[in-house]
Amino acid sequence: MTAPAYRYALALGGNRRTRRGNPTATLRAALHALADAGIVVDSVSPILPTPAMGPAGRGFANAAALVTTPLTPPALLTVLKGIERAFGRRPGRRWGARALDLDILLWSGGSWPPRPARAAPGRLQVPHIGLPHRLFVLDPLVRIAPHWTLPGTRRTIRQYHARARA
C-alpha cells in the first residue's frame, strides 16, 4: 500500500543575497532543494519582484509552486524550515529581511489543523492566514492555481486576487 500523495501550493520569497546568489537565484536553488528532499515540483510561477512590506528594506523576489508529496502539513513544514536554515535563514523580526521564506499556502487535504480545531497563534495554519489579502503571494499563485478554491469558501484564487487588486 502506498502513502497518499498530497498537493500543496507553496510561497517562496527572499530579499537577501545568499551564497547561491541574488534573491532570484536563491529561489531557483530552493526549488532544487525541494526536489532533492523528495518533493515533486509540479509547476512554478514566474519569479516576480515585489516591494518590501514593513521594515524589510529592499524589495523581494516572490514565486509560488505547486508540489506533490506524501508528507502531512506538519511534516512538510519541518522540511521547509530545514531548507530555510540551510539557505541562511535565521529567526528575526517579523517582516524583516530574509534569505529565504517558504510557506505552505494551500493543501489538497483542506484545512490544517483539521476542523473544528483552530491553530494557536504562531502555529501552522493551512490555508495560510494571510493568503486572501497578500498580493505578493496572490500575484504568483494566480498564474499557476487560479481555480483552486479555499476550503470553507466558494472563492477561487482568481477571485481573491481580483478582490486584493481592487
In a few lines, what is going on in this structure?
By secondary structure, the chain is α+β, with helices and mostly antiparallel strands.
The tally of strands reads 5
Query: Looking at the structure, what is the overall shape?
Result: globular
Could you give me the name of the CATH homologous superfamily?
7,8-Dihydro-6-hydroxymethylpterin-pyrophosphokinase HPPK
Distance between the termini: 48 Å
Class computed from helices, strands and strand pairing: alpha+beta
Task: Give average pLDDT, whole number.
Answer: 88
CATH topology: Alpha-Beta Plaits
Number of helices: 4
Q: Domains counted in the coordinates: how many?
A: 1
The CATH architecture would be 2-Layer Sandwich
Query: Helix-strand pattern, N to C?
Result: EHEEEHEHH
CATH class: Alpha Beta
The amount of beta strand, in percent, is 15-25%
User: Helix amount, in percent?
Assistant: 25-40%
Q: Unreliable segments (pLDDT under 50, ≥5 consecutive)? A: none
Characterization of this structure:
The chain is 28% helix and 20% strand. Helix 3 runs antiparallel to helix 4. Strands 1, 2, 3, 4 and 5 form a 5-stranded antiparallel beta sheet that branches. It has a single domain (6-165), classed as Alpha-Beta Plaits, CATH 3.30.70.560. It has helices at residues 23-36, 73-86, 135-144, 157-165; strands at residues 6-14, 40-44, 48-50, 60-69, 101-107. 31% of the residues are buried. The chain is globular and about 40 Å long. The N and C termini lie far apart (48 Å). It has 166 residues and is of the alpha+beta class. The chain is built from 4 helices and 5 strands, in the order βαβββαβαα.
